[in-house]
Amino acid sequence: MRPFLYERPTSVSAAIAMASRLDARNVAPTQAKTQFIAGGTNLADYMKLGVAQPERLLDLNELTEPALRQIKTDDDTIRFGALVRMGEAADNNDVRRRCPLLADSLKFAASGQLRNMASLAGNVLQRTRCEYFRETSWPCNKREPGSGCAAMQGVNRQHAVLGTSDACIATYHGDFAQALIALDAVVEVEGQRGPRKIPFASLHRLPGDTPNIETDLAADEVIVAIEVPLDPWSRRSRYLKIRDRESYAFALASAAVALEMDGNTVRQARIALGGVATVPWRARAAEDALRGNVLDDKIAAAAAEAAFADARPREHNAFKIPLGKRTLVRALLETRDMKV
Amino acid sequence: MNQAAPVPKENQGEPVVRIDGRLKVTGQASYPADIATANVAYGVLATSSIARGKVSKVHTEEARAVPGVLDIVTYGDMDETDTPKFGNTGASSIGPLHDKTIFHEGQIIALVVAETFEAAEEASMLIRADYEDEPPSASFDSKGVKVEPAAGKSPMLQEDVKAGDFDAAYASAAVKIDQKYSTPTQHHNPIELFSTTAMWQGHQLTIHEPSQNVTGWKIELARQLKIDPANVRIVSPYVGGAFGSKGPMTARTAIVAVAARRVGRPVRCVVSRMQAFNTQTYRAETRHRIRIGAGKDGRITAFGHEGWEVTSRPDPYVVGGTSATGRMYNYGSVLTHVSIVHADRNTPGYMRSPPETPYVYALENAMDEMAVALGMDPVEFRRINEPEKEPIGGKPFSSRSLVKCYDQAAEAFGWSKRDAAVGSMRDGDWLVGMGCATAIYPTASAPCAARVRLTSDGQVRVQCGSHEIGTGVRTVAGQMAAERLGIGMDKVSVEMGDSALPPAPVSGGSISTASVCSAVLKACDAVRAKLFAAAVARDGPLAGSGNAKLDMEQEKIVASGGKSAKLSDVFKVMQVGAIEEYAEFAPKGSTPEALKKLYAGQAEFHGGDQDKDSVKYAFGAEFVEVRINSYTREIRVPRIVGAFAAGRIMNTRTARSQLMGGMIWGIGQALHEATEIDRRNARYVNRDLQDYLVPVNADIKQVDVILVPEVDLDVNPAGVKGLGELGNVGTAAAVASAVYHATGKRIRDLPIRIDNLIS
Amino acid sequence: MSNSTSPSGLSRRTFMTGSVTAAAAMPLMATSPKAAELSPARAAEPRDLSTISLRINKQAYTLALDNRTSLLDALRDHVGLTGTKKGCDHGQCGACTVLVDGKRVLSCLSFAVMNQGREITTVEGLASADGELHPVQQAFVDHDAFQCGYCTPGQIVSAIGCIDEGHAGSEDDIREYMSGNLCRCAAYPNIVAAIIQARDEIRRA
Fold first, then answer.
1. Which of B70, B602, C81, C178 could form a disulfide with B597 if both were Cys (CB 3.0 to 4.6 A apart)?
2. B274 and chain A: CB distance < 8 Å anywhere?
3. SS3 of B467, please?
4. Closest Cα to residue B123, out of B74, B180, B84, B188?
5. How far are the Cα atoms of A6, A130, C89 from residue A53, in angstroms, in the given order?
């Protein structure tokens, strides 16, 4: 690991001011000289591996704004402060009662210890766990633009089938983000250019030709809150995560589902897919396929077909297409059958 | 009722709690990297990123410029030492810093030594090498591999066992199968990281390193460093999981020792998890072709087992499990052949049940296929092929309780409730499948020495250079002494894991309990003999009881007539404060040199299929229930039952734990574990615990272990068959059979994952 | 032995000029350069040591550490508390679990410098002064919830966190919430049984 300076701003404005202006304009936050750290579960790991090489860390854990650590609920929103820990949010009774999808996407992620450490904002910004990205001796366009992609023709069982490009097929492994993108969450950001709100769906960028640029954030910007609009039917929501082992593993496929039902008919569906795409993945085609239809095995299967219509498999990950479809079908039917 | 402490049955010892339990739960048990070491410098390895070629230059300038860097050991710096040797003590003949040839990915190219771990780690990442690289051969089917028969080429496989006329019998068999199976590359991944701490005091070298073979390492390290073995001490009081990985010494040990000599202070090198995948041994991938022929009555007439195993370019490592599979059932005729495939990979090494895990997996998966082909119940199929004598040499089994194991496990599991029709059992959205398989592991023991001291106040100290790798050998050695000397466990201490102690064989091959307990037993009996002689002497407290049968209990010597004498009174008569006895145990059939070889670090194994009079194995039967989601096809194992017969059980608690751990290993072998190789460049891809999956707590539900009573005094004086490796043999085949039962899909290549079951 | 800890929020000034008092249990510190040797006049450099104060097992420590030093390495190499184990150094095994301000976390993924002013509990801080084991420790012995013992400190500390969080209500909950602690010897069923015993005992107390 390269040595780094360490500082602890005590307010969001101080943190932003301390971030380098030079970095802010020209480089992705993940390649900036000055980077923010909260839980550290992703950044410290990647610093140890030499994947992330900040020269200066700004520790956000001493920020004093109380809202950063609060979960506030009112009639139609849940607002998560950025420094709320995953475990705390997963255990929050209001969250669980009003939107099981949010709570379960957190509960089934990582481990008890990691959830106690990782902040919600940091969690949604976690970087891919692609093995070729993790180890610096492999070529990787995300880590070292232009160096090539070792995964493309390599061992790519865990890689993405949706949202891939010729430069990168790395999976976005997060779970919480799938719930957020399904529920049309909004991210509140502050930076040197002032505060702004980003629809969650615009936060992450498809890899395209620049897989090294992962989000819409500038290097001086910090997420201060995540706001999730809730409807009464958010209670009929579910996160289904399929993995090789029962716990403490990344999704091979997951589905975040929320349904507004009118009897057996779908009035509105919200669907996101994890473990199969390069970014948090909203499956709008599947939602369209369901709308106005009676939710049975057949229509669920049609929705799943629609969700994976553009999937591009590689040598070892073709199974993710049928698995992803079945995961969605199962999630839809289980969500339909929820007693709420 | 505490499940961890099964009530002992016939020939089974008490479930005494671990003698080191308190140390382990308080963080006071010192593993080798925990030893407080003043003025220690930190070592970090730099390793090759190519798998085949030559290093033309190592650039160390940038690394040396990192503040705090003390030294960099690289090519040329080991020239005054001897290269490692491949064998039971040495992991590989590759001397990474002796030879600029790269034989495998991750080969050591330098060791950086610095004031702090951070500086050493930073500098190690700045070391660059220029390579003349060549296209490597990764594994089976890769261009450029060299395939040769194992027998004759490897000292590890004497012969391809055979019996009768396989070709004729197979050709004429009424029912037959011919199938291929495979197992993947696997790494032991003990949770303790590999490490070496080397410290010199003048000419004396002390190495703190987790080891399963302190005596062997002492001799081998002295040879490499060209110093007197008397000046080398290997210390490894607690080992944080081993499973074979800490049996052979790797090249790192000598490199760290040289580094410590160069910088004139102790050096500690804790190897990263990632680097361990390449600098330590592993279980190589295997392939199998199995042919079984049987009559319509289910009696097997022909068994053919061909195996292929990957090894390194220079070393003919092979596990050759055909010697066990060829003796498993009453086959009629047997034909086996094992080939080794040299690729650009590190030399493999033994990993929990080295031959049996892959070979018995293939056999037992095939047995289930055969039962299906015959339309027979798989338990019944095994029962009717139960042999009187082993088919290769016609020797009897010293004991064989396999049928009892099947009976008891089947009963506990509820096998009779299984509907044999494929896909017939279901619980809601979950397909249910049930399968079973046989476990077998050879029973061996080796020469071993132990010292036992009994003081007049009833304190017992047992010393033996064996290794506590989690098996509970410290506890059972103490238990043996406590029982023989009639002393409470609270007054017994056991010292192990130090080459300064009486030598013990490598803690591998499930030989430790048998070997160590036999030596401790012998030392205790010598102590008893002295005490008994003094007790019944003319001036002794039991004078006149010379013809009585004497025993020791509750710190007394008790005569069969009912008289007894306090231990302290006997010591008083003897006018000594302590009795200390040093005993050497050598198994039946040992060569005249066996004990001499013990001190030279070369354990001579006896038992298994090697003895003249009988073959010696422990057996078990495992039953598994799997559940497979009908939509998403993930496979879960809610229930597993194993019944095992392994001679005398010293301690039902530690025995159960080991067998349970083995069975869970088997679940991991079946469903999770695989080291992925990028075949283009012969490099491992998932070199960490994020992507090399082992079972977690949530994967394991109900695990039942049945200890089937068995008496076998033929195996060794302690009557003990090893069981550390028995539990995970067969499990993967039982899982594969259960998956077949649930889905109709026969998966022959491990691990069995969603990929295989979803279409 | 004890030093008073300063409240959290350490400033640049403290970095540069704060005096360093090595705690008594730190023989290994002798080899490390001292922060106090640094000149207070120049700007901070990445290689400068930072002075941090922690309470570990109710004992105050002030350490001069490289910013890169993980809490795990700080405990093991600088304080001499080697009960906490390194099994992967990347947050994948749970062997390094400690309690920070009462919550179970992975000390390998936490830079020590980020723990200024925090209360750390390691396996060494669980038994009472008279040697009586914590109920979780005793239950691990009773249920043979380990073999090699290497993951055990992490399992025990994690189990305390798990019970405290209220995630030990059922066997399934325990299995799920203890899945961040790998046990390669695979003592899992015994670990679950041990946690149930300890949970009930803690509830009774």
1. B602
2. yes
3. coil
4. B74
5. 13, 18, 17
Please give the pLDDT value at position C6: 34
What's the pTM value of the predicted model, to 2 decimals? 0.96
- Does C46 contact A57 at a Cβ distance shorter than 8 Å? no
Residue of C148, C191, C192 with shortest CB distance to B469: C148
What number of CA atoms fall less than 13 Å from residue B393's CA on the CB side?
16
Out of B121, B690, B698, name the one closest to residue A129 (CB). B690
Tell me the pairing of strands C97-100 and C103-106.
antiparallel
Per residue in A45-65, pLDDT tens?
Answer: 999 999 999 999 999 999 999
Phi, psi of B3 (to 5 degrees): -60, -25
Which CATH number describes the domain made up of C12-125? 3.10.20.30
Give me the residue from B67, B468, B700 closest to C189, CB to CB.
B700
Q: List the domain boundaries for chain C.
A: 12-125, 135-204
CB atoms within 10 A of CB B551: 15
Cβ-Cβ contacts under 8 Å, C149 against chain B: 20, 23-25, 29, 238, 240, 470
Contact C148 B654 (CB under 8 A): no
Q: Which amino acid is residue B253, in one-letter code?
A: T
User: Given this model, what pLDDT does residue C1 score?
Assistant: 35
Which one of C15, C63, C105, C107 would you mutate to disrupt binding with A, by most A Cβ within 10 Å of its Cβ? C105
Cβ atoms of residues A121 and A277 within 8 Å: no
pLDDT higher than threshold 50 for residue C21: no
Q: What angle do CA B468, B470, B474 make, to 5 degrees?
A: 40
DSSP category for residue A165:
-
Determine contact: A247 vs chain C, CB below 8 A.
yes
Confidence category of residue A330, pLDDT binned at 50, 70, 90: very high
Give the per-residue pLDDT at C41.
65
| CA dist., res. B214 & res. B247, Å (int) | 9
Query: C50 forms bridges with which residues in the sheet?
Result: C65
Domains of chain B: 1-27+355-443+608-759 (3.30.365.10), 32-135+192-279 (3.30.365.10), 446-603 (3.30.365.10)
What does the block give as tokens for B142?
């890769």
Chain C, 126 to 145: residues with Cβ < 8 Å from chain B are 126-127, 133, 137-138, 140-145
User: How does pLDDT run across B594-653, given as a tens digit for each residue?
Assistant: 999 999 999 899 999 999 999 999 999 999 999 999 999 999 999 999 999 999 999 999
For residue range C24-62, list pLDDT tens digits in order: 344 344 334 444 444 456 788 999 999 999 999 999 999
Q: Could you tell me the domains of chain A?
A: 5-62 (3.30.43.10), 237-336 (3.30.390.50)
Q: Which two tokens stand for residue B5?
A: 């402490």
**Rounded percentage of chain B residues whose pLDDT exceeds 70:** 100
Q: Does A6 touch chain C (CB under 8 A)?
A: yes
Neighbours of A311 (CB within 10 A): 19
CA A187 to chain centre: 12
Secondary structure class of C61 (helix, strand, coil): strand
Element (H, E) at B258: helix B252-263
User: By C-alpha distance, which of B108, B129, B128 is closest to B43?
Assistant: B108
Catalytic-residue membership of B121: no
Residue A270 tokens, joined: 């919200």
Q: How many CB atoms lie under 10 A from the CB of residue C102?
A: 13
- What is the architecture of the domain spanning C135-204? Orthogonal Bundle (1.10)
Asked if B273 contacts C183 with a C-beta cutoff of 8 angstroms, the reply is no
Q: Which of C47, C66, C158 lies closest to A112 in CB terms?
A: C158
C70 touches chain B (CB under 8 A): no
Burial B184-215 (b: 16+ CB within 10 A, else e): bbbbbbbbbbbbbbbbbeeeebbbbbbbbbbb
